[in-house]
């Protein structure tokens, strides 16, 4: 199942720089693991915003929920999920 996910990151202004850096490093490692195993095939920055559009390819809503809530940045994100179905005119 494919899902389009928008993540807006809102780090608190008073979060110490070293803690912010550590969380971002963990986020990068976590996301790259999921990209390598094929469950996070697209990760795109929204130009001009601390936000991304991602596509996840997972088995179920429950699997997506688990992946998202394990994001190191999850406590600091607003997340919007759109489930995708095949378009009848798509040739892919
Ligand atoms: O920077 C972001 O948009 C948040 C994020 C998701 C995966 C990652 O490495 O950073």
TrEMBL record:
<comment type="similarity">
    <text>Belongs to the muconolactone Delta-isomerase family.</text>
</comment>
<dbReference type="GO" id="GO:0016159">
    <property type="term" value="F:muconolactone delta-isomerase activity"/>
</dbReference>
<dbReference type="InterPro" id="IPR003464">
    <property type="entry name" value="Muconolactone_d_Isoase"/>
</dbReference>
<keyword id="KW-0413">Isomerase</keyword>
<keyword id="KW-0058">Aromatic hydrocarbons catabolism</keyword>
<protein>
    <recommendedName>
        <fullName>Muconolactone Delta-isomerase</fullName>
        <ecNumber>5.3.3.4</ecNumber>
    </recommendedName>
</protein>
<dbReference type="InterPro" id="IPR026029">
    <property type="entry name" value="MLI_dom"/>
</dbReference>
<comment type="pathway">
    <text>Aromatic compound metabolism; beta-ketoadipate pathway; 5-oxo-4,5-dihydro-2-furylacetate from catechol: step 3/3.</text>
</comment>
<feature type="domain" description="Muconolactone isomerase">
    <location>
        <begin position="1"/>
        <end position="89"/>
    </location>
</feature>
<comment type="subunit">
    <text>Homodecamer.</text>
</comment>
<dbReference type="InterPro" id="IPR011008">
    <property type="entry name" value="Dimeric_a/b-barrel"/>
</dbReference>
<dbReference type="Pfam" id="PF02426">
    <property type="entry name" value="MIase"/>
</dbReference>
């Amino acid at each position: 199942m494919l899902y389009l996910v928008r993540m807006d990151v809102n780090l608190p202004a008073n979060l110490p720089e070293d803690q912010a850096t550590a969380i971002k490093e963990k986020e990068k490692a976590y996301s790259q693991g999921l990209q390598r195993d094929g469950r996070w095939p697209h990760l795109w920055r929204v130009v001009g915003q601390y936000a991304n559009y991602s596509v996840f390819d997972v088995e179920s809503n429950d699997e997506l929920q688990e992946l998202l809530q394990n994001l190191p940045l999850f406590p600091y994100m607003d997340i919007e999920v759109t489930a995708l179905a095949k378009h009848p005119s798509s040739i892919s």
